[in-house]
Write a structure and sequence with these properties.
Elements (H helix, E strand, L loop, with lengths): L4 E2 L2 H15 L6 H14 L2 E2 L3 H26 L2 H11 L4 H9 L15 H5 L8 H14 L1 H4 L2
Parallel strand pairs: 1-2
Helix pairs in contact: 1-3
Length: about 150
């Protein structure tokens, strides 16, 4: 009577693709996405599916968008940058690795100890405000700036 029709699977796929291409690069808030989806259904004169189906459609589109985004970023990384990232987040203790390689008969309980990654070390709390903590933070930034500013 009003020109609205029932939503189909292809309509849901079309809405999902529209979300990924046009909306999700700029908006990630769930409530806003929900509102925009209902407006899109209204403009296409499609009766929206149930609330749970719409929420599932939004979550699926967000997941696909994040996967596409991460894949695109990863494809742009060079092997040298990937190696630097791996070094930054590596938690294996080098001294323990050398001990394990040189003496395989030793118990491995010492090799199971992990050191804090350099990235985690950068995020550590500087402690109480003072000259010493300030100088320590400056030194951390100076030492680890090679990871961010080396081409």
């Amino acid at each position: 009577m009003f020109g609205f029709r029932v939503a189909t699977v292809s309509d849901s796929e079309e809405i999902s693709n529209w979300l990924i291409a046009c909306i999700l690069p700029n908006e990630q808030r769930f409530e806003s996405l929900l509102e925009q989806i209902y407006q899109k259904f209204r403009s296409l004169q499609i009766e929206p599916p149930t609330t749970k189906q719409v929420e599932r459609l939004i979550r699926s589109a967000i997941n696909r968008h994040e996967t596409i985004f991460c894949t695109q970023i990863y494809a742009q990384l060079t092997p040298a940058i990937i190696e630097q990232i791996d070094l930054l987040i590596d938690t294996d203790s080098t001294s323990n690795l050398e001990n394990t390689e040189s003496n395989n008969t030793e118990e491995k309980n010492t090799s199971n100890q992990l050191r804090t990654s350099e990235f985690a070390f950068l995020k550590t709390d500087p402690g109480p405000v003072g000259l010493e903590s300030f100088l320590t933070e400056i030194e951390k930034q100076r030492v680890y700036s090679q990871y961010w500013f080396t081409p």
